[in-house]
Amino acid sequence: MTTLIIGLCLFLGTHSLAMVAPGLRASVRARLGERGWKAAYALVSLLGFVLIVHGFGLARRAPVVLYTPPPWMRHVTFLFMLPVFPLLIAAYLPGRIKAATKHPMLTAVKFWAFAHL
Questions:
Q1: Which sign, positive or negative, has the C-alpha torsion 53, 5, 67, 87?
Q2: Across the chain, what does the average pLDDT equal?
Q3: What pTM does this model have?
């Protein structure tokens, strides 16, 4: 799990550097040059990605169960999923569902997300 977390920190850290520390990015780019900056950025990102993949493989061998939903929630999830597909179809067809909900696809995504909490 540690390998996965280190990989995520490296990968997401490099990709959020412009948001978190734009001055640092500009100074490193000025010091290394454009090609040097891109090479360093690519290498650190690639290293992070490799660590993510390797760490995920290691984490799958010994999974840590964080949450087990109660068995009755399965039926509640199915119940909330019932309107999702008609709403998705209604997003592309004219009709009363589209007129009533205004944005049937957004409503379908909300139902789907709530059902999978």
A1: negative
A2: 91
A3: 0.60
